[in-house]
Amino acid sequence: MNGPAPAAPGAFISSLESCFALPLNEITSIVRSFHEEMDRGLSGQSSSLKMLPSFVDVPRGTEKGSFLALDLGGTNVRVLAVELDGRRNATVPAVSTFAVPPGDMEGTGAALFDFIARCIDSFLTEHTIDRNNLYDLAFTFSFPVAQKDIASGALIAWTKGFTARGVQGEDVAGLLRTALKRNSISCINVTALTNDTVGTLAAGSYLDPACDMGVILGTGTNGCYREKSSNIKILNGYVSDEYMIVNLEWGNFATLKRTGYDMHLDEASVNEGSMFLEKMVSGMYLGEMTRLVLIDMIQRELIFLNDPDATEHFSTKNSLKTEHMSLIQGDQTTELSKTDRYLKSMGVTSSTLPDRLLLSHLCGIVSSRAAAISAAVVSAVLTWLDPALEERHTVAVDGALFEGYAGFEAAMTETFTLLHGNNADNIKLMKCKDGSGRGAAIVAAVTASKQ
Ligand code: ADP
Ligand code: MG
Known about the structure:
The chain is α/β, with parallel strands linked by helices. It has 16 helices and 13 strands. It has helices at 9-20, 24-42, 102-105, 109-126, 172-182, 196-207, 260-267, 276-281, 283-299, 310-313, 322-329, 337-345, 353-385, 400-404, 408-420, 435-449, and strands at 52-53, 64-72, 76-85, 90-99, 135-141, 145-149, 152-155, 188-194, 211-217, 221-228, 243-247, 393-398, 427-431. Strands 1-11-10-9-12-13 form a six-stranded mixed beta sheet, with helices on both faces. A five-stranded mixed beta sheet has the order 4-3-2-5-8, with helices on both faces. The protein has two domains: 1-52 and 208-433, Hexokinase, domain 1; 55-194, Nucleotidyltransferase, domain 5 (2-Layer Sandwich), CATH 3.30.420.40. The termini are far apart. The structure holds adenosine-5'-diphosphate and magnesium ion. Magnesium ion (MG) binds at residues 71, 73, 142, 196, 218, 398-399, 436.
């Protein structure tokens, strides 16, 4: 592995810190190349940013009605009923969450969509929803999709560990309609297809008109923003509203300084050579990144010296979860006893306090870089819209990483201040739990109001 080479933990850690550090000049250079890639993507040149048009603009806040929403994230499927009161309130009277079985992520597309149809079926039963009515459903699909209108779109490529066969290149809204039919669910009309970032922005701006960006920090990471339709050359003159939401697909941004651990993680992934930013930032990968460094530290005899089997306890890929990092970094007990409990559950029964402090420090190094990169790309989008950050911008953020990782938001704010000084106060991060699902219903409402 290409990691640092010194022998004592102190020297190793400082070398690790400098490998993972993002000083101001590097953050500024990320922002600059991000702008170049945005520009190339919008004009249809080859770019690591797909800049996908969503065929919808933000809501006015006056949209009303009852809708269903289906949110396929990277980890869970959520089915929601959403009520919009026309006065910026979107309430969720019913919601059910289902974990996507790993077998269905990697099997056939038909099996995956049958699983989703069964989730809808369970939701209807659980909440005793009358199947004699017809419900408009918005489908949030958290993968890159090429849309030509609001109700359909073809999967460009799977991300986040999904490989289900026979879906790439197909219309995913169509696959859902077929699966609903196959499972005899006739009370659902799929009226809108939307990305999770777009849903999050819709939900954020329904609540707060200053919201002009949607961000996901969950299993994966991505962002979207409002662009002038006339700047979106790839629309080929498609006539629409003055503005349209553009899904950046920023998980694939590649101009980043990568360490040997990043390369190792990428090589072992199902989508080698792509999604470099996502692999450095998101919930699916941070735990694994930490595990790779930890294994290196164990093998260099810098940690867990009391446990001759330490390598084996962490030898399984993905066995260290991002939630565990969050628990370790958030452990306020003097002896780090929560961390000790976690380590015991992994089989490390004799860790010392310095071991646990070292592990906590390692989690901090990996998560701080993730937060700094996230903040850099949020800043890049906001300065694309408003170069000196003179206006107030609300950024709606959904995803369990942002919501659950102690200190992640604070670390992002530090980077905003580093980049923008006092003007960083103009950036407001707004937690938008289930925004991707609620917002899809809002997108369905915007669509319905135009028909
Ligand atoms: P999805 O991406 O499927 O919409 P979520 O937004 O719930 O789902 O994100 C799930 C991801 O968030 C998982 O990768 C998980 O590791 C991570 N995660 C969940 N809880 C936490 C937490 N408390 N701290 C950090 N990461 C978390
Ligand atoms: Mg999600």
